[in-house]
Amino acid sequence: MENAFIYTDAYLDYDYGPTHPLKIIRLKLTYELIQAYGLLPLPSVQLLIPQKADDETLALFHSREYLNTLREASEGRIRDAYPNGLGPGDNPVFKGLYDWSLLVTGATLQACDFVADGKGAIAFNIAGGLHHAQRSRASGFCYVNDPVIGILKLLERGKRVAYIDIDAHHADGVQAAFYETDQVLTISLHESGRTLYPGTGFEDEIGTGRGEGYSVNIPFLPFTDDETYLWAFDEIVPPLIDGFRPDVIVTQLGVDTFYNDPLAKLNVSISGYEKIIRRMKALAPRWVALGGGGYDVSNVARAWTLAWAVMNGVELSDPLPEDYIGKEARLGIYERELRGASKPPRYSPMEVVRKETERVVEYIKKTVFPKVRDTGTPQE
Ligand code: ZN
After folding, report:
1. What does the pLDDT average to over 20-49?
2. Residue 73: CA count within 13 A, CB half-sphere
3. Which of 190, 200, 288, 360 is the most buried (most CB within 10 A)?
4. Marked catalytic residue, from 132, 169, 170, 190
5. Against a cut of 0.85, is the pTM above it?
6. What does CATH list as the number for 2-371?
7. Cβ contacts of 124 within 8 Å, gap of 6 or more
8. Known catalytic residue at 170
9. How far is the CA of 254 from the centre of ligand 1 (A)?
10. 188 pairs with which residues across the strands?
11. Percent helix, strand, coil in the chain (nearest 5)?
C-alpha cells in the first residue's frame, strides 16, 4: 500500500505577517527535515503537489457571502470585516489569503481522494487542519475549514468517517459542523476552555438530536503530561472507534500541546506525541492526516517528521541529520536532537490534573459510550 505526502513551496507565497504566531515557514522546515531523514522519496510513497480547491467545494460548508468577503479581502479591496472575524489580530487580511485557503483545502481534498480511491492507506497534508473556521466567520488563524470540507466529500462518497483532533485547542468548527448528526464521530482532546481559546469543548458538549453521543470532548487542565494524556486517550478513543467502525479516520495533528509551545499550557512531550501517533495508526483503517497548530517551528518540524516516520513504519534516530541543522540555523535554532529537546519539566499539581481527568473520563463513559453504536467496552 502506498502513502501520500502533500506539499508545495507555493505555501511560502503567503504570509500572516511578521508578528503573527502562525509561521508558514514551519511547513518548509518539516518538508526539509523529512527529506534529510530520507523519508522522501521512499519506494512506497507518492509526493503530491496540491491543486487549489474550487469555490463550489468551499460552499459545501461556507456561506456564499462569507466566501465573497474572503475574496475581496484577499484582493485588497477591504481591510477588515469584523462580523466575519477578519481584521488585525488573529485573522489578519493579507494578500492572497483566499488563494492560500484554496490551496490548503485542495491539499486536504487530494488526501481524501487518495484514500477514498483506494490508492493508499495514509495521506498527510501538513498544511491542513484549520479546525476553527466557522460557516461565515474566520476564527483562530483559520479562514476555511478544510477538515469539514474534506469530511463532507468523504461522506458524499459513502464513507463512514471519524475525526480525532489532538490540537491543544478545541476543534470547535468541526464540532459545530457535525453536532446534530450521527454520520460523523468527532473526538477532540484539548486544553480546557476555562484556560484556553476558544473557550468551548467541555465534556458535556456531546451533540444534539441524532448527533447525541457523537461529539466527544476531553478537556485537560493546564500542565497535563504524557501519562495522564495517554491514559485518557486509551480509555476513550479506541473503544469509541471500535464501536463506530469508520471507513476513514481524519485526524488533526496539532503540536501546540508541547510544554514549550508559546500559546498553550499542556505538558505533552515529543515522545508522548509519537506514542499517540502510533495509537492512531493502529486505529485507522484508512487515514487522512492533517497538520494543525504548533507555534514553536522547531517542534513542528520534529513532531510531523516523527509522525510521517511512524506512518511509514520507519524508526528514526535522535541525532538530527547535519545538513538539516544548517537549515534550522537560518532561524537561530541550534538543537541537535529529534526527541530530546522538548522534555517537559514535572509540575507539582499532578494529582489535581489526574483527578480532574479521571472525572472527565468517567463522565464520557456514562454519557457517550451507551449512545455510540456497538461500543466495545462493556459498562460496569
Ligand atoms: Zn491549536
Report:
1. 96
2. 26
3. 288
4. 132
5. yes
6. 3.40.800.20
7. 3, 4, 5, 6, 111, 289, 290, 304, 307, 308, 311
8. no
9. 6
10. 165, 217
11. 40, 15, 45
